TrEMBL record:
Binding-site residues for FMN, renumbered to this chain: 10, 96-99, 140-143
Cofactor binding comment, as recorded: Binds 1 FMN per subunit.
Domain of life, per lineage: Bacteria
InterPro entries: Flavodoxin_fold (IPR003680), Flavoprotein-like_sf (IPR029039), FMN-dep_NADH:Q_OxRdtase_AzoR1 (IPR050104), NADH:quinone_OxRdtase_FMN_depd (IPR023048)
Known function: Quinone reductase that provides resistance to thiol-specific stress caused by electrophilic quinones. Also exhibits azoreductase activity. Catalyzes the reductive cleavage of the azo bond in aromatic azo compounds to the corresponding amines.
Name this protein carries in UniProt: FMN dependent NADH:quinone oxidoreductase
The enzyme's E.C. designation: 1.6.5.-, 1.7.1.17
Catalyzed reactions per annotation: N,N-dimethyl-1,4-phenylenediamine + anthranilate + 2 NAD(+) = 2-(4-dimethylaminophenyl)diazenylbenzoate + 2 NADH + 2 H(+); 2 a quinone + NADH + H(+) = 2 a 1,4-benzosemiquinone + NAD(+)
Description of how the protein assembles with itself and partners: Homodimer.
Protein encoded by which gene: azoR
A Pfam family of this chain: Flavodoxin_2
Taxonomic source organism: Thiorhodococcus fuscus
Domain Flavodoxin-like fold: residue ranges: 2-198
Keywords: Flavoprotein, FMN, NAD, Oxidoreductase
């Protein structure tokens, strides 16, 4: 039985285009594989706290030495890591905000990137410990950015996932959503066509 970790990061929660496309992709996967299990996190509806000194100290403090507050914080971070470790496939709905990924998604990455757990340092550099997993990114943008210097998302996400050991990464783009109604419809249709191609592969 395979497990899917579905992460949405739109400020509009399930109403965002990236969330809609990610939800459609997961639903189609489940039609093909009804035995698969899904863990869904909507970071727009239930955001993860951004990493700060208090949270980092709690995570880095040895378990036996943690205060009650630190144990709660560390358990939250451990749960996020466990969800990724148990997943075979990550499906990320990622809108573009000001040329970057949503800050709530950055907070998620900050909590799951932990030395000795999801990556380790070696004499040759860092090695990801989440190998053997696949990721599909459903990326929505108001303008046209793919292949342009303004697209900071694609390289960041591929680099971050690769750093953790996830190198099998596919991107589906819905771009030009805010140019006009025709462009919006075309972008969503093109993204849905790309999803069908992924499902057929």
């Amino acid at each position: 039985m395979k497990r899917i970790l579905h992460i949405d990061s739109s400020l509009f929660s399930g109403d965002g285009v990236s969330s809609t496309l990610a939800g459609e992709y997961v639903a189609r996967l489940l039609e093909q594989n009804p035995q698969w299990r899904v863990t869904h996190r909507d970071l727009g509806r239930n955001p993860i706290a951004h990493l700060d000194a208090t949270r980092l100290t709690a995570i880095m403090t040895p378990e036996a030495d943690r205060t009650a507050e630190q144990r709660t914080i560390a358990e939250e971070a451990d749960t996020l890591i466990r969800e990724v470790q148990e997943a075979d496939l990550l499906v990320l709905g990622v809108p573009m905000y000001n040329f970057a990924i949503p800050s709530v998604l950055k907070a998620w990455f900050d909590h799951i990137a932990r030395a000795g757990v999801t990556f380790r340092y070696t004499a040759e550099g860092a090695v990801g410990l989440l190998e053997g997993k696949r990721a599909v990114i459903l990326a929505s943008r108001g303008g046209l950015h793919r292949g342009q210097p303004s697209d900071t998302q694609t390289d960041y996400l591929a680099t971050m996932l690769g750093f953790l050991g996830i190198r099998d990464v596919e991107f589906v783009y819905a771009e030009g959503l805010n140019l006009d109604e025709g462009s919006r419809e075309q972008a969503i249709t093109s993204a849905r066509d790309a999803i069908e191609q992924l499902l057929a592969a």
